[in-house]
Amino acid sequence: MRTAKILFKGEEAGILMQYDDGAFEFHYHDRWVNDDNKPPISLTLPKSLRAYHSRFLFPFFYNMLPEGTNKQVVCQLNRIDQKDYFGLLLNTAKYDTIGAVTVIKIEQE
């Protein structure tokens, strides 16, 4: 299982996980959901105390990935399989993204 913190404007909003079978789960932290001043990270992932599940990387996160030649270069330089979308997300969305969301890998112990 691989896990990442999802930050919105630098503040942790939730957790994204990829299970060993390739499925994904995203859930907001309770404090984020209960704070009326905190927005959802995406219109496709409205604030909810229930976790979201998907067999594929959620479209919101998939759309944060590089494409074409940029994707090829990033994958080659970081030795990431081009179909490892979660690995690609962890390497490319941790610092500078177009939107307010960043993705930080949680190291497993």
Q: Could you walk me through the main structural features you see in this protein, from its secondary elements to its overall organization?
A:
The chain has 109 residues and is α+β, with helices and mostly antiparallel strands. The protein has a domain at 2-62 and 93-106. Helix content is 26%, strand content 27%. The chain contains four helices and five strands, in the order βββαβαααβ. It has a five-stranded antiparallel beta sheet.
Short description:
It contains four helices and five strands, in the order βββαβαααβ.
* Mean pLDDT over the full residue set: 94
Tally of strands: 5
Query: What profile does the largest beta sheet have?
Result: 5 strands, antiparallel
List low-pLDDT spans.
Answer: none
Instruction: Indicate the structural class.
Output: alpha+beta
Strand order of the largest sheet: 4-3-2-1-5
**What percentage of amino acids are in beta strands?**
25-35%
Count the DSSP helices: 4
N-C termini distance: 11 Å
Written as H for each helix and E for each strand, in order along the chain, the element string is: EEEHEHHHE
Write the layout of secondary structure elements.
Blueprint lengths: L1 E7 L2 E8 L5 E5 L1 H5 L17 E3 L4 H4 L5 H11 L6 H8 L8 E6 L3
Antiparallel strand pairs: 1-2, 1-5, 2-3, 3-4
